[in-house]
Amino acid sequence: MNRNLNKARRNKNDEFYTQLADIERELKHYKKHFKDKIVFCNCDDPRISNFFRYFSYSFEHLKLRQLIITCYKNQQIDLFTEQENEGAVSLIYNGDKNGNKIPDVEEIGLKELKGDGDFRSDECIEILRHPDVIPVTNPPFSLFGAYMSIIMKYGKKFLIIGNLNAIGYKEIFPLVKENRIWLGVSPTGMTFLTPEGSLRQMGFAVWFTNLPHKKRNEPYIFTKKYAGHEKEYPKYDGYNIINVSQSNSVPEDYEGVMGLPLSFLSKYNPNQFEILGVANSARWIDYKCFTIINGRKIYDRLLIKRI
Prior knowledge:
single chain, eight-stranded mixed sheet
């Protein structure tokens, strides 16, 4: 499943459509953050976007001010008729007007953009700059670093889907280490719809956000000990760093540096742990580390230490 994401990044094959169930599962934890806000889905095809479907039907429930979706240039301008146009479009919804609680055709505005609709274009940046805009989308896997750089440049609150491995990117790791971004509530892994209509599992797909949620500061519950169980925690060859093979196996009595699966970030509590780096990448700070145990390379690890 993880290979699918890595292959997508290499090939720039970014057409993976988020399923409505995954959106509903995550968004239910953020209702208070969307009141009077403008949701901006700036990487979505409105013809099939479940982000549009979710937010348009939840518009009054979330008490949104506005919903805006921008679409790249190879899509249709007219979502509701057979008219076709290769230009980029924006779709704007200001809520229910006739009282039926349904986003009707006449209530949805369509506008052809002058540019190509890329999230980096001047028109899309201008929308993003609005102080009440919250981006919520599934950006291209191959452009995740560039997308996050723009979001952070304009100081936006956001909720987006990405690859867990992105925490090792040069644009992302400092934000994770400084507790400026974190993972959402849902567990790692999602199933996406491809343009061909097939389902694709992505084992390392996660929600990234800087919106507070209830899981963010849940205390990590220790159930393991290091003393007397040292063989379960081998050290990496040449480093005084122990390997913790599972996210729920952090030893309560170990004070040194530990390497954990990247998925530990979903259990990470900034009041209990400090993030030091990502092994096998350039994203270490005080600790350089390669995850080799008895000559055998294992997968990348998040380097942490107890506070």
